Amino acid sequence: MNNLFENDDYCFVCGKSNPIGLKARIWNREGKALIDIKIPREYQGYRGVIHGGILSTLLDEAMIYAASSISAKAVTAKIEVKFLKPVLCEREIVVMGEVVKKKKNWVIAEGRIQYKGEKEDLCKGQALIKIWEA
After folding, report:
1. Which one is the CATH code of 2-132: 3.10.129.10, 3.30.1330.10, 3.40.30.120, 2.40.50.140?
2. Burial (0-12, 13-18, 19+ Cβ within 10 Å), 53
């Protein structure tokens, strides 16, 4: 089971070896994570709008990285996403994740997506995440 959680650099969001992945750079520290990325049209739903599944995936990744910064291993048990406004392709966005509560082997994390340099939330999420030490 431990092999299941080894990083083989093929993650859809952050893996550099995945030819169809997003290749996002992610910074995480002290219960917080940040992704700064521009999503191309190949990942759109409606014309010029990033597909909701991609936005959900980015929020999940940011929240998992936030949890991983305080524990060796983390997996999402439950996630909820709220789409507030259309998020356009080819614009730089910032995806933020933050651990807001920790209780034993569980954390609750929150995430948000904004256009770079702006403060309005375009998409928000919350996740229940299982954590454990290796």
Report:
1. 3.10.129.10
2. exposed
